[in-house]
Amino acid sequence: MTAPTPTTGLRPEAPPPGEPARPAARPPRRLGDRVFSGMSTGSGILILVLLAGVALFLLAEALPTFTADPEDLPGGEGFLSYVAPLVFGTLLVSVIALVIAFPLSIGIALFISHYAPRRIARTLGYLTDLLAAIPSVIYGLWGAQVLAPYVVPTYRWLAENLGFLPVFAGPASATGRTILTAGIVLSVMILPIMAAINREVFLQTPSLHEEAALALGATRWEMIRMAVIPYGKSGVVSGAMLGLGRALGETIAVLLVLSASGGITFNLISQSNPPTIPSNIAAQFAEATGLAVNTLVATGLVLFLITFAVNFAARAVLARRAEFDGASG
Amino acid sequence: MSLATSPDTGLARGARPLPRWTPWALGAGALLVAVVLGGALGAGPVLTAVLAAVLFGVAVNVVSRVVEGPRRAADRTVTAVVSAMFLTAMVPLVSLIWTVVSRGAERFDLEFFTLTMRNIVGEGGGARHAIIGTVQITGLAALISVPIGLLTAVYLVEYARGRLGRAITFLVDVMTGIPSIVAGLFAYALFVVFFGPGVRFGIGGAVALSVLMIPVVVRSAEEMLKLVPAELREASYALGVPKWRTILKVVLPVAAAGIATGITLAVARVIGETAPLLLIAGFTASLNTDPFNGSMQTLPVFTFYSFFTPGANPGPSIDRAWTAALVLMLIVLLLNLVARVVAKVFAPKGSR
């Protein structure tokens, strides 16, 4: 940023000829500048305070959980055994979502950036942005009312024919509201965001790289493999991690779709599914009192730490990329 | 991309390219085989589509490999796979929009917008209280977030030096990743200190939404301010205009359209948040226009509760949930549209 010289905004010491001479008094230092920079800096500091506040108030509200007698907590076996299935469920459903969404998001992004005719590519890009803005409660409604009944026969088939695999051990849920369904709904939710990020990354490939590959006689796929993918690799990874962070924190869609009752299990299609941290908070909070509230806040703190770690990793990947090839974002 | 490969790129030596209609013919063939085969096995439409896609991919690969050579075959197969992926991903999204529109239209009537749920059991009733609550809470959240976010962006772009600037940039990044439910817990933990356990009111929801909205506003405003050419600032300084007037009169007006777009998108982003409002704004069947006193219903929470606890006769309640979802989706679409229009109409002209 350019900075004004120290005399900017001061009245000139010597008035130009033709004007009446003014006394060369020093006018007041720019009050407006001080107020304005003070307000901006204050807002920045307010954000520091706000985040410190988030951490402090959550910690204060969570603290009784750790000092209380383990038997008084919900479940009666201490905080760790209460939170373990929740953490497991959160991670499992997010990983399912990521495994489904990751290849699809790359496919969609490549389709929009390199395959679709240019006239419709813009519209498609706009459409994915729009889909990313649809509220999660709507995805939840759709998952519970449309997707869950639809997948029941498939789950039954999987349990009968692939039941020897632990993930499809069954018996298949009669409602379809399993952790796999929740994972699919989450993957549909994070798909537009990840696709939008990947599209941006792929579009940033220097066209000189692409032209060079084509000039060497590469086919379109070879050009993508040689120029686009290597250039966008870290951007795609960090986009996936941002999608993962979103899936980890998703509350309402999971709460609407998942019928959570069980503990830790890798069985994806049965009736007993582990709850996730956010859906558990939303489900229990209205009726919780006393220590139960503190425990829920403590699980929220655990969730915050997990998402923080994931987001931090994503930023680190992005920052390293910017360092290496000088491309920002 | 305007880059195109020449017709004989990647062909094996002496091979001739396949005629242009080949992929279409293969696609039609694959579809036909899949329908016949799927019909024989009793497969549903999804399985048939998957079967058709796999058959098409294999057929394209084999035909191209025989006629054109392996490099061209790989290229064609990837084109088929990428297009199939795109179509696959569109299926749930189209289904989602179709369901919301068709199910939501059933109760999309005047009653839905003029009645609350007070004293209503079973059929009828509306979401007037929820719509008003959503507008109030989101408006308050914007009222809190926009000045803070905008000033912070100004600080980061125009004033920030050294450690404080870096720390704030980092923390805005951290804030972007706060899960919405944690924002709700924060608002609860904050107000419980002052008002005791079980506190529920609208302003708490606005605070929770602000935590989610501020980083979005900061990020978008920051991007826009960075786009303002340094020459404009220099010209202003050279004329002797103080820095604060330069920012207010030169930098912000140039970036105004982009900032307005960013704020609109941020509002669209938080207006559909359910989880934080569930925790701190609560839910009620009656109209409550005082955000400082008592539970307030909002559209996302209304959608959630109508579906989650539909009562003894679930039909009408679930219908209301879908209509509320439709209204919510329309609001979000409208906000996105407004953002686009603002960006287009008020964008600084190149000639000025």
Helix content of chain A: 55-70%
The CATH superfamily of the domain at 87-279 in chain A bears the name: MetI-like
| Uncertain stretches of chain A | 14-21
Give the overall form of chain B: flat
Largest interface, with counts of residues having CB < 8 Å to the other chain, equals: A-B, 106 and 107 residues
CATH C-level class of the largest domain in chain B is Mainly Alpha
Structural class of chain A: mainly alpha
* Average predicted local confidence, pLDDT of chain A: 83
Strand content of chain A: under 5%
Structure description:
The complex is a heterodimer of chains A (329) and B (352). Chain A is mainly α. Chain A is 70% helix and 0% strand. Chain A contains ten helices and no strands. Chain A has helices spanning 31-67, 78-115, 118-132, 136-161, 179-203, 207-215, 220-249, 252-257, 277-285, 291-325. In chain A, helix 3 packs across helix 5, helix 4 (136-161) packs across helix 5 and helix 5 crosses helix 7. The model of chain A is unreliable at 14-21 (pLDDT under 50). By secondary structure, chain B is mainly α. Chain B has two domains: 22-98, no CATH class; 113-345, Orthogonal Bundle (MetI-like fold). Helices cover 74% and strands 0% of the residues of chain B. Chain B contains 13 helices and no strands. Chain B has helices at 22-41, 45-68, 70-104, 110-114, 128-159, 162-176, 180-195, 202-227, 230-238, 243-271, 275-280, 299-308, 314-345. The chains are: A mainly alpha (329), B mainly alpha (352). At the A-B interface, helix 1, helix 2, helix 3, helix 4 and helix 5 of A face helix 3, helix 5, helix 6, helix 7 and helix 8 of B.
